[in-house]
Design a protein that fits this description.
It contains 10 helices and no strands. It is an all-alpha fold. Helix 3 packs parallel to helix 8 and helix 9 (98-106) crosses helix 10.
């Protein structure tokens, strides 16, 4: 039986707290991720730190992506096509470790997040489907 690709991919949106990086998300976030990768160069990090809004003018991103960058709303950036490994360039430029940045995405303190991960990560028990509430 043939699989409807759109239906299959839509199922990924039913996983609570998870954003699967699909081709559609990659297309949406292309320029956002290119911006993030630009921060690998010291001269670009200096320009970004000197005037973030001005540096963003050089990038053909949506206004929503730019606003999320300026707010450092990493969860929203993921929704808007950001790839966590590219976004790492943003929080590294801010002087944050991966653990520090990701803890802001969970609503936990750094210490709470670290302890959760030391304890094996999030429990597999709980809501596994948004639409089914289970």
């Amino acid at each position: 039986m043939p699989v409807n690709v759109r239906e299959y991919l839509a199922e990924f949106d039913d996983i609570p707290g998870t954003r699967v990086y699909t081709a559609a998300r990659a297309r949406q976030g292309y320029w956002l991720n290119q911006f993030a990768m630009s921060l690998m160069k010291e001269e670009n990090r200096k320009r970004w730190k000197a005037d973030e809004a001005a540096y963003l003018e050089d990038w053909p991103m949506s206004e929503e992506q730019k606003a999320a960058l300026l707010a450092r709303d990493f969860n929203r950036l993921l929704d808007l096509g950001g790839n966590i490994y590219f976004l790492a360039k943003v929080f590294s430029t801010d002087g944050l470790s991966f653990v520090q940045a990701v803890s802001t995405m969970t609503g936990m303190s750094v210490e709470e997040y670290q302890q959760m991960m030391i304890n094996g990560g999030r429990s597999p028990e709980g809501v596994r489907s948004i639409k089914e509430g289970r």
